[in-house]
């Protein structure tokens, strides 16, 4: 009986997330397609105008990255997806509706975060793989691998931005909101500032750990919001 | 049988200001209970504690056997909550709301929801944000009723509603409580509406229980008299015997839970001349104001 309730509740929560994300959640993927198209025409144009040598020059001397417009795509997608999921859940004291649902609120939060992080993973995974595939059309596979190393910190910035935005929506204290935003901005700026192929590679595990900690903090903030009035 | 709600010496405050000062009351199974009080009496804080949105700083509050700030999901399933201001997911349509909530409640009654919503004569594909406040109130009430809860808590259900929608809501509630035996605890700032609805009232003032009684007993026991105002009458103050003392124009008005002879005797002992003495019938709102005061 308990399992039936739990599976029905999961279906209910997934249904609500689907309603929130069915249209607005597609926007980052549409932007991804546009960015990939831009990247393709950039490389194609460079090769057509100046020959393959120009592409090699860009990689060796790290002078130009054809996927430069993608720098802020994971970041803005992370903020966007978190806002789409958490703004209708948290604004105007609606967090109370969430707290009163007959489900464990921490498990429900994990499901919502898991769904958002899953979408972001699909987006960033798609971005890295598609970009690597595009580069491999013009250059050897080693260059494609380098491009993934360049994209990884930007993708990680997307996850940090997602967690920080969710945290800001759930947080009830304006001062703490500013604090989360300030600290989050430091990490996000550090990750998106990565210039050239392979920068931040050594620090990536640490940044990954920090992103995980941001996600872990959301549960604590939710608990505090509940005890403090669920506004 | 254990009470559905049990508050014992409840205390809570914000930023050093004590809002609840040892509030105690019990809600037993069956009937409609009104939690009444003037603005700032502690109603909202009490409801927030009952709903589990606040942990009281002192005392004990149990809802369906669970501590109110640690309600288990299976307990929450038995409680229907109507949030103040009819807070609900605006981004969903009426049909989507119904589909969403029915996943969580095994005793969901789609026909109860449909009956209430059909009367709105708006398509189920209409978003909640596009409905008027009155229509929205009906959808929110329908969502709570369709859950078939054991206990229903309605936080200021009358807020923002005109007289017509308030009456509609009360009629539905009354019929529902009688049909399903649901226990209802509600608060409202429109006291006169509750006269015909509630079976039992808790009147709170300054964060503690001022008065608790069955509706009928309240009217039987509290009475009001008017007499000509004199300088001696102006010196009268509230006592255990005189629940309220008021002077309006050329008359003084007193209320008491004691009988007429006792009141007259007490007034005479204070040298008050009881000229033009007459009893004035009390309406629900008059009685409420007599107890809590107008200021």
UniProtKB/TrEMBL annotation, chain A:
Top-level taxonomic group: Bacteria
TM region(s), chain numbering: 21-41, 70-87, 108-134, 146-170, 177-197, 203-222
Keywords associated with the record: Membrane, Transmembrane, Transmembrane helix
Membrane listed as a keyword: yes
UniProt-recorded name of the protein: Transmembrane protein
High-level lineage: Bacteria, Pseudomonadati, Pseudomonadota, Betaproteobacteria, Rhodocyclales
